[in-house]
């Protein structure tokens, strides 16, 4: 299973697009996340979601495969066009990594007693 996937569906003359990518989380703890962006093709994504964390990429790949199978039943097909929402997904990954990693400013070098 690939670690990225782009699916589209034609409905009433409009193209709905879903892009998914699996990425490691910061911290080198072996945790991975599945990021998905969805919306109308040719526009900004209307939704960005993350699932996980998963212990290892293979668990995340299994979840992505399951999602792809469910979407195929709804009429989505794999798209050969290049991803268009990569930067949106990268921003979401940065946000997630910021939630899980301590910030330098969070430490007190001379805490008062």
Tally of strands: 5
Report low-confidence residues grouped into runs of 5 or more. 103-109
Radius of gyration: 17 Å
The total of helices stands at: 2
Oligomer: single chain
Based on secondary structure, the structural category is alpha+beta
Average pLDDT over all residues: 86
Strand content: 35-45%
InterPro entries: PA4575-like
Write the layout of secondary structure elements.
Elements (H helix, E strand, L loop, with lengths): L3 E8 L2 E11 L6 E10 L6 E9 L1 H17 L3 E2 L7 H15 L13
Antiparallel strand pairs: 1-2, 1-5, 2-3, 3-4
Pfam families: PA4575
Characterise this structure.
By secondary structure, this protein is of the alpha+beta class. The chain has one domain. It contains 2 helices and 5 strands, in the order E-E-E-E-H-E-H. It has helices at 57-73, 86-100; strands at residues 4-11, 14-24, 31-40, 47-55, 77-78. A 5-stranded antiparallel beta sheet has the order 4-3-2-1-5, with helices on both faces. A hairpin with a 2-residue loop joins strand 1 (4-11) and strand 2. InterPro entries: PA4575-like (IPR056903).
